[in-house]
Amino acid sequence: MDSKIQVNQVNLYYGSKHALKNVSMEIPSHQITAFIGPSGCGKSTFLKIFNRMQDYVDNVKISGDIILDGENIYDPRVDPTILRKKVGMVFQQPNPFPMSIYDNVAYGPRVHGIKNKVKLDAIVRESLEQAALYEEVKDRLYSSALGLSGGQQQRLCIARCLAVKPEVILLDEPTSALDPISTSKIEELLMTLKEHYTIIIVTHNMQQAARISDKTAFFLLGEMIEYNDTMEIFANPKDKRTEDYITGRFG
Question: Taking the model in full, what pTM does it have?
Fold first, then answer.
């Protein structure tokens, strides 16, 4: 297994609340890793560590190492802006900017200094194609992104993330606000994107984890209880608590 990220003994505190407890794992390249567990178990908190979203939260203390491509992302020399270009994030609620579809996708590349129209056109088209959205929007690229359906808006947010050429994509319950058809489109999309990206997804939907992920980690009360190939976690869990959760006894 070629691992993209190594996590060693990570603890996170919000003030005196111990929200993540001694989490260690290796996240493989070019696979989908899913984090599952009941609400409040620490899975979204853990996800946000990978692009330092926790930097924006007051009174947070993090210890341990998160090594991405051999570099500790919490090393003081690491520029969080550059890190967030490498590690993109897609949120639970689609959040397109109130501007055109084109400008949503071109936003990141422009921030990173690309001004050439021909280059931007190519990036916008390629990103929308990768997000399986181009054919649906090619005739209205200059219309407001807010006119898209929820599922299209979420694929636009994925395209916006892809436009800055990340290596890792974090998705925090990306389909929980969507209907089943939009959900399956995004699941299919993620399965194709893993050829080029390392994908980490938080989902409350265990069927989704079982359908699309290669690896699954089960979290409970801030601890990572079990982490294994998804098939193993669902067919042959090693820990009684994992089994109880996936068979619906709690959660």
Answer: 0.95
